Amino acid sequence: MKFIHLTMLFFLITSPALYAQDLSSVYTPLTNCKLIESSAEGTGSSVEECPGQEDYRLFIEGGDTRTWLVLKKGKQSKVSLWDEVMHNAPGLFAEVSGKVAEWRYRGKVPIALIFRISGTEEIFTDDHSLPMYKEKSILLVIRLQNNQICLIGKTTSNVEARKMADSQKT
Fold first, then answer.
1. Which distant-in-sequence residues (6+ apart) come within 8 Å of 35 by Cβ?
2. Cβ contacts of residue 29 below 8 Å, gap of 6+?
3. Contact, 59 vs 50, CB < 8 A?
4. Which of 31, 54, 62, 79 is most open to solvent, judged by the fewest CB atoms within 10 Å of its CB?
5. How far is CA 81 from CA 66, 89, 127, 143, 167, in A?
6. Above 50 in pLDDT, residue 4?
7. What is the pTM of this model?
8. Does 99 have pLDDT greater than 90?
9. Are the C-beta atoms of 170 and 150 separated by less than 8 Å?
10. pLDDT-wise least confident of 23-27, 39-43, 93-97, 148-152
11. Is a pLDDT exceeding 90 seen at residue 112?
């Protein structure tokens, strides 16, 4: 009986460590993506396709000096992350500002996407001053699970972003 308890205790202690060993990252560039659509009206809207992973295709869409990511998995319809980028930007004129996207894997399965966005913050030193502008950035963590794509968190730390991505949070 004591052997069974010790075996179960060993299993419980080592399982999280074994589970975590399966985690890895793959990086894909968000620069020099292939332009696949551009507006002729001068609004600046465009669609670029960047390298994806596994069955995921990755696009950067933009317009009016703003950019956001769009994901497509297999034959499913595209999922725009416009809301996630615009509502979480740390300032005005939100854009995908990182040079790479980080895909988090558990074994051979992509479980999350991490990417950097930025925005311009207006800072007034007093009521009569002209604004100063400061660019701020954050990382968004997107869960890729069971054909669902959703925002699970934001942070300024790469380490924290990976912890969120690796968690079971949905």
1. 46, 47, 48
2. 50, 51, 99, 100
3. yes
4. 31
5. 12, 12, 36, 12, 21
6. no
7. 0.82
8. yes
9. yes
10. 39-43
11. yes
Beta bridge pairs of residue 50: 58
CA gap 60, 134 in Å, rounded? 24
Per residue, the 3-state secondary structure of 97-109, as one string, reads: CCCEEEEEEECCE
Tokens encoding 22:
């399966």
Chain-centroid distance, C-alpha 58: 11
Q: What's the CA gap between 120 and 134, in Å, rounded? A: 6
- Quote the CA–CA distance of 29 and 52 in Å, as a whole number: 9
Which residues have CB under 8 Å from 16's CB, separation 6+?
none
Phi and psi, residue 32, nearest 5°: 55, 35
- Quick one: tokens of 14? 């080592």
Q: Is 144 helix (H, G, I), strand (E, B) or coil?
A: strand
Distances (CA, A) of 69 to 10, 141, 165: 43, 12, 17
Residue with tokens 């051979």: 108
**Local structure of residue 130 (DSSP, 8 states):** P
Cβ-in-10-Å burial (0-12, 13-18, 19+) of 34 comes to exposed
One-letter amino acid at 100 equals V
The position carrying tokens 């740390």 is: 90
The identity of residue 60, as a single letter, is I
Find out whether 121 and 136 touch, Cβ atoms under 8 Å: yes
